Amino acid sequence: MNKPSIPKGTRDFSPIEMAKRNYIFNTIREVYALYGFRQIETPAMENLSTLMGKYGEEGDKLLFKILNSGDFMRGITDEDLNEGASGRLAAQLCEKGLRYDLTVPFARYVVQHREELQMPFKRYQIQPVWRADRPQKGRYREFYQCDADVVGSDSLLNEVELMQIIDTVFTRFGIRVSIRINNRKILTGMANYIGQPDKIVEITTAIDKLDKIGIDNVKAELANSGVNEESIAKLQPLFEISGDNDSQLAAIAEMLKDDETGSKGVEEVKTVLEALKPLELKNEIALDLTLARGLNYYTGCIFEVKALDVEIGSITGGGRYDNLTGIFGMPGLSGVGISFGADRIYDVLNQLNLYPQDAIQSAQILFINFGTAEAAYCLKIASQLRQAGIRTEIYPDSVKMKKQMSYANAISVPFVALVGESEMESGLISVKDMASGEQKQMAVDDIIQLIRAKH
Amino acid sequence: MNKPSIPKGTRDFSPIEMAKRNYIFNTIREVYALYGFRQIETPAMENLSTLMGKYGEEGDKLLFKILNSGDFMRGITDEDLNEGASGRLAAQLCEKGLRYDLTVPFARYVVQHREELQMPFKRYQIQPVWRADRPQKGRYREFYQCDADVVGSDSLLNEVELMQIIDTVFTRFGIRVSIRINNRKILTGMANYIGQPDKIVEITTAIDKLDKIGIDNVKAELANSGVNEESIAKLQPLFEISGDNDSQLAAIAEMLKDDETGSKGVEEVKTVLEALKPLELKNEIALDLTLARGLNYYTGCIFEVKALDVEIGSITGGGRYDNLTGIFGMPGLSGVGISFGADRIYDVLNQLNLYPQDAIQSAQILFINFGTAEAAYCLKIASQLRQAGIRTEIYPDSVKMKKQMSYANAISVPFVALVGESEMESGLISVKDMASGEQKQMAVDDIIQLIRAKH
Question: Is A99 touching B (CB cutoff 8 A)?
């Protein structure tokens, strides 16, 4: 029989990987909760009518569709079949699909439960999503998203708190980051300013690449997409804006002073940055006028987080949107949200070796098994340790010492307890520190102290 | 536009439901970890070749199958189509399916990763599973399983520790339970004893119903399934065995003394019960000779947990099996496991109203928003509270007091903080206890003490 395998683009998570992932999710969860966000979960399967048409034509193709149960061929005609593997045939064979992100299910949730919800609604959601993308390094067909959103409130205080959340999460991780902020209205203002309001998509798409491809290529791309030379020249001062946030704000305010939308965007960013000043975040918040992000969706402030000590793309992002639920017939609901990129954060923590030892450890002490009588004695001591909150294992079989010690090494347990006849007589336990190799006889209470102190 | 909905048999979990579910999962997780179990996760999607044929013909029909991406009609002939919605056609359209339980993916995981795994392998897994069952009260198409297993060890110490885990979990929940234990070998021994070893399935199936249908109906069912009268009469003493575990063990040992398998089963149960005696569990462990459970799978001790104060089926179960991975070509791997029924535990905790207040609470204090200057002042205080670990919210908009208080009630926050001009001058904060209605002025440190004391 062939060794079994899993579908391409999916992953098993081993105990050590899970411990690391749990450390990430728990940290994010705790910080979200500190700010009063409340968790929800939605089903893995949504009706395809909920999912289709929300992610563009390309997205529709990337949805995993679930074959109808029972007589899935009912109602399907020869004509349908002759079309081949069309979207229409797929829609007849399948009425459900796996969620593609957490945003559309959240929008569906808000509309479906609107009568029960008290606005503002601050929710977070940490669940896997599925995309039939071509798998490649760092891109998976199943991956977790960690989203927090506030809907039903226009207040910029929400933006301020989301910045604090980002700062707190990365401070807890020990990852130094730069938190970039911009505003979609500033980008609109710029398009207006250079006299090409209709080219806003092309302009922001090009500007977004400034970091990667450089100013000359951005200009070439702009020209290519039909922005005229004069307009491109008018953009030049934008690329030259520099200095701290206040100087950049002053410069862009001046540039956009005659554009209402642009000025509003400047005002919004200013309000957020001013409110953050006295809060003394640990990480830098930098105005980045070239930051664009998913333009069609966001309408106000936008954010993106870059790790400072590792070369990797954005590890967190978000922004304000004006119309989350319009697609489901409930217009005018504004909100703002962020999403932590758990897989990338995992890579950064790995590269910088930042996992706290305690978070990724399983048992804290392992009792070697010397036989039936000894194991029975150890069971009682293990109970005492567990009651004190110490994660305790007894090796279940009284096999060779070498095998038991090799298990101890495999699970990276910091202490091994040895209880033989002499220990049963004295009531003391021989405890070996696996790091130093040191071994001494200890009472149960002293073991508890020792392990707690290691925390 | 119609109000959007979710597929039948699936559920959204609101913040309060999620908080309750997290309390359940976290409690189980913590106890598993206390005993050195380590978490793994496997993908939602498995290859259908992994899933098919593992759950019987009925189970295969209940698998959710995922339509192949891209040209799903490739290679499908008219002949295939003429068959209609057959299993064969489904297998051509779909190569992946959603997992149906956690056991088969775990077996697949063990075989796939056998070179990396150190035995014994103690894993737990808490993930949703999907079944295309007809939805009905208490039965869902998506639900969580919470499994722990030790594989690669024959030691009965594992059974002992699993009993301790069950006892600890339900003690933490405050649910009084009876933990029933039996052994598959005892059931085999009985079938041998009455001279009908070939009728073991029918006998255990009938005996398993004793509680529900009574002794006369059990006998009728046995007769119906071809067990002869003499054999049924020989079973009679079994139904009359009573008393405490020791007396029952003595009686069944006597009855099965000439049957090797049966005697081994008695010995195994005895060993487990003896080892548990000095550990003084909080809940009763009761030998139940009529307990049968999924006969074809289990081969040694079997367990089942009943809540004492609520009428509900089994809320936890498990047992030992001899051949987890044989289906994937790796024979002879023995293991023992348990599975907590999260949905039923949820119902029990709800009925008995046993959720600790702190576990289901979101924010611990909410700051009322009186305007821009006040909110800015509150942001700093909120930061201090959060640094002290207090879950703190500021109402984002400075709307009418009534609306803000209605929000406070909706999220069940125990304290509301009011900071107006006079508070900003005095540096003290007006804190209202939402339960008593009492309001007093307090310093930040005193608020921290107050809320911590409420824990």
Answer: no
Query: Who among B43, B71, B392 is closest to A11 (CB)?
Result: B43
Chain A residue with the nearest C-alpha to that of B391? A34
Does A109 contact B at CB distance below 8 Å? Answer: yes
Kindly report which listed range (A35-39, A161-165, A174-178, B138-142) carries the lowest average pLDDT score: B138-142
- CATH of the domain spanning A361-454, picked from 3.60.21.10, 3.30.300.70, 3.40.50.800, 3.30.1050.10: 3.40.50.800
Residues 170-199 of A with CB under 8 A from B: none
B67 with A71: Cβ contact below 8 A: no
- Are B38 and A66 within 8 A, CB to CB? no
> How large is the greatest C-alpha to C-alpha distance in chain B, in angstroms?
93
3-class secondary structure, A26: helix
| A246 near B CB under 8 A | no
Three-state DSSP string of chain B: CCCCCCCCCCCCECHHHHHHHHHHHHHHHHHHHHCCCEECECCCEEEHHHHCCCCHHHHHHHCCEEECCCCCCCCCCHHHHHCCCCHHHHHHHEEEEECCCCHHHHHHHHHHCCCCCCCCEEEEEEEEEECCCCCECCECCEEEEEEEEEECCCCCHHHHHHHHHHHHHHHHHCCCEEEEEEEHHHHHHHHHHCCCHHHHHHHHHHHHCHHHHHHHHHHHHHHHCCCCHHHHHHHHHHHHCCCCHHHHHHHHHHHCCCCHHHHHHHHHHHHHHHHHHHHCCCCEEEECCCCCCCCCCCCCEEEEEEECCCCCCCCEEEEEECCCCHHHCCCCCCEEEEEECHHHHHHHHHHHCCCCHHHHCCCCEEECCCCHHHHHHHHHHHHHHHHCCCCEEECCCCCCHHHHHHHHHHCCCCEEEECCHHHHHHCCEEEEECCCCCEEEECHHHHHHHHHHHC
A65 contact B CB<8A = yes
DSSP string over A105-129: HHHHHHHHTTTTPPSSEEEEEEEEE
- The reply to whether residue B42 touches residue A6, judged by beta carbons under 8 angstroms, is yes
- Report chain B's mean pLDDT, rounded to a whole number: 94
Alpha carbons B142 and A106: distance in angstroms, whole number: 18
Question: B117: nearest CA in chain A?
Answer: A410
What are the chain B neighbours of A275 within 8 Å (beta carbons)?
376, 379
CA closest to A397 among chain B residues? B155
pLDDT per residue as tens digits for the range B276-324: 999 999 999 999 998 987 657 899 999 999 999 999 989 999 999 998 8
> In this predicted structure, what is the pLDDT of residue B360?
87
State how far residue B371 is from chain A, nearest Cα, in angstroms.
11
Q: What is the pLDDT of residues B210-228, one digit of tens each?
A: 888 888 999 999 999 999 9
pLDDT at B63: 96
| Annotated domain spans of chain A | 15-44+99-351, 45-98, 361-454
Across the interface, which of A66, A279, A375 has its CB nearest the CB of B157? A375
Q: Which of residues 41-60 of A touch B (CB under 8 A)?
A: 41-47, 49-50
Residues in chain A with CB shorter than 8 Å from the CB of B90 are 67, 72
Sorted by sequence, the CB contacts under 8 Å of residue A73 that are 6+ apart come out as A93, B81, B84, B85, B89
Contacts of A378 in chain B (CB under 8 A): none
- Domain B15-44+99-351: top CATH class: alpha beta
pTM (2 d.p.): 0.95
Using one digit for the tens of pLDDT, what is the confidence trace for B28-42?
Answer: 999 999 999 999 999
CB contact under 8 A, B279 and A379: yes
